[in-house]
Design a protein that fits this description.
- The protein has 239 residues and is of the alpha+beta class.
- The chain has one domain.
- It has helices spanning 11-14, 48-60, 77-89, 94-103, 114-119, 128-145; strands spanning 2-5, 28-32, 36-40, 150-155, 169-179, 182-188, 199-203, 214-215, 224-228.
- Strand 5 and strand 6 form a beta hairpin.
- The longest helix has 18 residues, at 128-145.
């Protein structure tokens, strides 16, 4: 059995101590090509990506998060920093587009034989299980094995309506346990501050079956997960 944790990271110590619940102010708009326009910064959409990136920034800089149990007010530098990191978490629109692709109800539930052939000519017809097991988990594992936190996008809804994008979620992976084909990813979730029991479980042997990732929190189902690109920034406002 392999058990890996990012050195020096503990959810109760290094995660932000306030929950992902912000007032409806300081809204910014972000255009997703021709698909949709998202409003960022209100309580309905949340700032999970910004909080996850901020958590990683602080840990990488060797800084402790502020002790506050309430989110920063919209007129503060800390709030503006988190909003800026939320925008950065979208990777110039590529991350919302990845969410939208993996949300698609036209994506096959089980891996079709023809998907590999189609992939060679740039046509993505892989199932969500195949994507998690063969594309995204190796990237996430590489981060964690190197001692780095890994940003994850959690696809929590399936549908073609772009307005459903706001139901998805971003979290931080800080470790994993692997026993044979049984994988458990350890998660720091902005919606559940201080909770170090949150996990995502996946049987890596079920690559050709319907998506079978299990999120330990019961507030939403989990259709798929993927690695979100992360570039650190100096969290100077927290120094």
């Amino acid at each position: 059995m392999a058990s890996v944790r990012v050195p020096g990271f503990a959810v109760a110590v290094n995660g932000l101590h306030f929950a992902n619940a912000f007032p409806p102010s300081a809204i910014r708009r972000f255009k997703l090509g021709n698909i949709a326009t998202l409003d960022i910064g209100d309580a309905a959409n949340g700032l999970c990506g910004g909080m996850s990136f901020t958590t990683a920034d602080l840990h990488r800089a060797g800084l402790q998060p502020p002790p506050d149990l309430a989110p920063p007010r919209p007129d503060t530098q800390a709030y503006r920093y988190i909003v800026d990191r939320q925008i950065a978490s979208f990777d110039d629109g590529r991350v919302p587009l990845r969410f939208y692709s993996l949300m698609s109800p036209t994506r096959p539930e089980r891996e079709p034989t023809v998907a590999i052939v189609l992939g060679r000519i740039g046509v993505d017809r892989h199932s969500r299980s195949w994507v998690m097991i063969h594309e995204e988990w190796p990237r996430i594992r590489a981060d964690l094995d190197a001692g780095h936190l890994s940003m994850l996008g959690l696809v929590r809804v399936v549908g073609l309506d772009p307005q459903l994008l706001g139901h998805n979620h971003q979290v931080v992976a800080y470790g994993y346990d692997l026993d044979g084909s049984q994988l458990v990813i350890r998660i720091c979730d902005p919606n559940w501050p201080g909770d170090d029991t949150i996990t995502i479980a996946l049987d890596l042997s079920r690559e050709r079956e319907a998506a079978a990732a299990v999120w330990s929190k019961p507030d939403a189902s989990l259709a798929c997960f993927f690695r979100i690109p992360y570039t650190p920034t100096d969290p100077i406002v927290f120094r």
